């Protein structure tokens, strides 16, 4: 079972330990979720077989495009595909056979070994929002994200009990030149946190830089023998694999680092308007992408991804937390498990412009569905706002708090003498109450998930305290967390080597904002 | 499948029909949900058997109290129980055997036959919040509820596409004497709406009044042969059945009207602090309650209820949308199905004082869980705020909108030629888009659930329109709905008879606010 590990980050010193002890903000990190509940499945065997058959028909008859990537076309030809121009048609059975070398689960190592995660199986690893060019907070409003914002999010993720992973581009640090951002972002993940993180995919050369920085952090041999990064390779749905994403994938796969291979679906625009049709296309795309990663390097870790939203057919806007997206995700989870691949989907998705009720309904719909659908790696699990355009500080800690409910649900229902509580029922009897009974006294501290944020106070107390809404409470929590942040310790020689690497890289290229 | 029935309420007149046609607010009522998805189950066979065995041990060894109700004790004695003082100990197997005469599903008739609902099986019927003494809206704030508020909620429920049921005490009309409230509340449900509704349980005599008013509305013979009311009988957990609730249950059961028999659980206070212990007690209580209803009248419709919240062990406040409450509800659903009884649980539960993000997270957690756990009758499915102390106008329409997502999820994944969409995938091909393809054009109108409330507009448009949050949008929708409300037609002679009945009843008793 998933249990919080009550380990304070103390930087090794007795003084730091005492300071941490006095800290107002509780600070523990939970182990990644190990589900003790079943997955929710919406497709029966017949439906699964039809979709699997049709996906192979798509690959064989229609095919996929590998764009501006002659080496990929050569590799596919050699593997037995029918290549014509940039179109790759994959004979029935070939992609599935190639996928078989990908591991069903793998460990992504963190520099703090206690925070390494196992991705796959019955596990769920939670990582923050990825990609927004804007940030928002209650005082500063909506604005372009900066490196300072980025660092704050890394700190918040580091201090969030229910986040297991530091993520990647938690926001776009738009004040740093595009061609240097990945260096600063990686440096922040590596030095401000000790949780696992993601590598850059915006250019193959930046993927290579990510590998080289990890070689400094973890040691070159360790990186070649172990997975220390996960990366997000989006497919340009429908059925298009571009050279930048595939070039990055090639770097990671060759170095045994993990790739999420993820159709990017706005239902009705990038995929058919029906759930079954979308699932067919998603499976075809993932089969082609994972197969390609295994052609590049058999055995490289690959994750079956599915970014799924619906569309508002009036405005064309993507919509989130919708039932159709949930149904696609439940089905995709089943398809991933039948391929023995780890599954990535769901997140704190919402279309709302504010961290209000709309945002929370949509997010809760998606988070619950993510747990139930068997997701193994949940990117965007907190902080997403406005269709992914904005990383919101308050929503980050609001969502991160809700992630605790997933840990609680995943525990399932233990059936043993103590949990059956027959002694308590006998002790209390008809008309009594359980507040003071022995069983309650022995178990109340761990019995219920406890929010670090939500307000359960009586109306009168709440009103006296200023009638604060969730966003206001969250803003206070953001401040409190950042005020009490302490950087995890790092070997100074490693820090120096990383600094030197980044400085040298930056020196050798002119700034570019393109 | 659940489908919206596009039937306008037109009062029969061509003029009214044309006015309705011009109405700004779309007005359809969906059929109750018929699930095409499986239930989510957290207990395996062994766990179920242990809990079932222990529940019977509770009944046999500890027993339950029937308070101030000598007739009930006589009935139990006659049925074979061991009665000592007010304690009723039920031999293993007896309660289960008695429960067998309760129907596994039943129809609750509405005065508009198209709005009758089937409670049980794979169906889910949604009804609004029940019981709050306070109301809140964005302009008026929090205040004691009045009959005017009550009527507004009945109108909103009548106009809500996704609500199948008008509910009961949607708020307490505190400006009406306690002993006359039930008359005014029933009159409002009967005349302002044509959806099914609930009867009074605050005194056995008021249950009898409810039956008599239904005899006027539906005809005496019809009521004796059909179920036209559902009622909420709470058990005073642990294991206490009071005379008021049981007296009302006796009236309804004798008249073949439906009773929800519902343990009222704040985990850690009214039940053990563990999920398995709570399930044991819930099952024991429901077995005793349903068995009693069947002793009174074999075959009377009875619903396995479970009101479940957790407790904040620091403050003692009840908490909602928690993982522990979800696990209890999933388990209780399984236990109900093994008893072949309809299941009532879940709702728009939250502890928040405002319809903000906390409220929406908690509510979405509970609504999703309610669908997945196989709930057949969901009381409180919209409008609940502040632990049930407040019925909130904005949250009522916000939640009611979200109920649409449950309808969408319940559809599952149809697998047929059109849904598989292979023609669309062929037509569009790699790199294209689906917006204009034939399949999308043919299906986009019904493909996605569409919110009537949430904002999907681009940031700039949203900002120009006043940067409104969900609550503000909801307040506008409340006004718009109430402004366009039209009363459903009723036979004037029935209306007169109801008025006469209520007037005569009121005349014969002094006001009481106790």
Automatic annotation (TrEMBL), chains A, B:
Keyword line: Methyltransferase, Transferase
Keyword Repeat applies: no
Enzyme Commission designation: 2.1.1.-
Keyword Methyltransferase: yes
One GO BP annotation of this record: methylation
Pfam families linked to this entry: MTTB (PF06253)
Gene3D superfamilies: Trimethylamine methyltransferase-like
GO molecular function, one term: methyltransferase activity
Region (Disordered): 1-22
Family of the protein in this entry: Belongs to the trimethylamine methyltransferase family.
Record protein name field: Methyltransferase
Species name: Shimia litoralis
Organism classification: Bacteria, Pseudomonadati, Pseudomonadota, Alphaproteobacteria, Rhodobacterales
């Amino acid at each position: 079972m998933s249990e919080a590990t009550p380990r304070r980050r103390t930087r090794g010193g007795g003084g730091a330990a005492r300071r941490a002890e006095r800290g107002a903000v509780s600070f523990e990190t939970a182990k990644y979720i190990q589900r003790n509940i079943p997955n929710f499945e919406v497709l029966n065997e017949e439906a699964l077989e039809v979709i699997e058959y049709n996906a192979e028909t798509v690959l064989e008859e229609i095919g996929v495009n590998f764009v501006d990537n002659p080496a990929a076309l050569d590799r596919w030809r050699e593997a037995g595909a029918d290549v014509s121009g940039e179109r790759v048609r994959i004979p029935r059975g070939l992609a599935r056979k190639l996928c078989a070398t990908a591991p069903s689960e793998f460990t992504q190592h963190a520099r703090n070994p206690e925070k390494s995660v196992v991705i796959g199986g019955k596990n769920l690893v939670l990582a923050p929002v990825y990609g927004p060019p804007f940030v928002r907070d209650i005082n500063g409003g909506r604005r372009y994200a900066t490196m300072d914002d980025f660092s704050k999010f890394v700190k918040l993720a580091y201090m969030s009990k229910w986040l297991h992973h530091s993520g990647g581009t938690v926001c776009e640090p738009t004040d740093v030149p595009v061609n240097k951002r990945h260096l600063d972002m990686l440096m922040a993940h590596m030095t401000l946190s000790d949780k696992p993180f993601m590598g850059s995919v915006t250019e193959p050369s930046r993927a290579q830089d990510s590998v080289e920085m990890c070689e400094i952090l973890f040691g070159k041999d360790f990186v070649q023998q172990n997975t220390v990064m996960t990366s997000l390779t989006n497919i340009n749905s429908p059925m298009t694999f571009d050279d930048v994403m595939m070039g990055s994938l090639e770097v990671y796969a060759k170095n045994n680092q993990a790739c999420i291979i993820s159709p990017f679906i706005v239902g009705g625009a990038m995929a058919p308007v029906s759930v079954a049709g979308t699932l067919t296309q998603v499976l075809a795309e993932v089969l082609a992408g994972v197969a390609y990663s295994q052609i590049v390097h058999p055995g490289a870790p690959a994750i079956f991804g599915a970014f799924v939203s619906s569309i508002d057919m009036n405005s064309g806007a993507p919509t989130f937390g919708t039932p159709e997206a949930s149904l696609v995700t439940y089905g995709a989870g089943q398809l991933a498990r039948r391929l023995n691949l780890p599954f990535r989907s769901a997140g704190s998705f919402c279309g709302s412009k504010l961290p209000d009720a709309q945002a929370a309904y949509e997010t809760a719909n998606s988070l619950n569905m993510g747990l139930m659908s068997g997701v193994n790696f949940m990117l965007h699990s907190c902080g997403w706002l406005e269709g992914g355009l904005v990383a919101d500080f308050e929503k980050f800690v609001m969502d991160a708090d809700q992630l605790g409910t997933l840990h609680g649900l995943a525990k399932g229902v233990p059936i043993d003498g103590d949990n059956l509580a027959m002694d308590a029922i006998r002790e209390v009897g008809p008309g009594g109450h359980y507040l003071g009974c022995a069983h309650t006294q022995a178990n109340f501290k761990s019995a219920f998930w406890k929010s670090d944020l939500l307000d359960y106070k009586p109306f009168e107390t709440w009103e006296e305290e200023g009638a604060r809404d969730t966003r206001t409470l969250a803003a206070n929590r953001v401040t409190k967390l950042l005020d009490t942040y302490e950087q995890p310790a790092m070997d100074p020689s490693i820090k120096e080597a990383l600094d030197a690497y980044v400085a040298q890289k930056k020196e050798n290229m002119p700034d570019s904002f393109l």
